[in-house]
Design goal:
- This protein is 40% helix and 15% strand.
- Strands 2-1-3-4-5 form a five-stranded parallel sheet.
- Helix 1 links the parallel strand 1 and strand 2.
- The longest helix has 17 residues.
- The protein is globular, with a radius of gyration of 14 Å.
């Protein structure tokens, strides 16, 4: 694995419209990394933990996580990621959700989220927020995820 291995983006978002908007505006910000999209927590967790190309087994990733999913809470997914043995627990998690409840925000940071962004309800504000997120993604460093010996 090279030191500059491309970081894959894993988006866990059940709203297809939001998912398209997020991907389009991340691309507009010049981010060309692969984006793998999941609409539910069960499938996403299986990928995160077990897939050959997933972050637990194959290199650095960044997770964009909605909290309101059809089958489980995003906080459950966050808890599982941060409690994982091995490299997955170091994967940065950006919570991207409509919830702006102060208690929920604090809870997510306590559980180990790296960034918490509230989705603006206005379309143009949402698009702008995602473009700014894309610029942020272009400069952050994520830890290498070599399996631990």
């Amino acid at each position: 694995m090279s030191a500059h291995q491309s970081v894959s983006i894993i988006m866990i978002e059940d709203d297809e419209g939001h998912a398209r908007l997020i991907e389009k505006n991340i691309r507009r910000a010049g981010i060309s990394n692969s984006i793998t999209h999941f609409t539910d927590g069960t499938t996403a967790l299986d990928y995160l933990f077990n897939a050959e190309e997933g972050p637990q087994r194959n290199g650095p990733a960044l997770v964009l996580l909605d909290l309101n999913l059809p089958d489980m809470s995003g906080t459950d997914i966050l808890t599982k990621i941060k409690a994982a043995e091995g490299p997955l627990r170091r994967t940065p998690v950006v919570v991207l959700t409509t919830t702006d409840d102060k208690v929920e925000i604090q809870r997510c940071y306590d559980l180990g989220c790296n960034v918490y962004i509230t989705k603006p309800v206005n379309y143009e504000s949402f698009a702008q927020a995602i473009r700014q997120l894309g610029l942020f993604l272009s400069v952050i460093q994520v830890p290498e995820t070599q399996p631990e010996a």
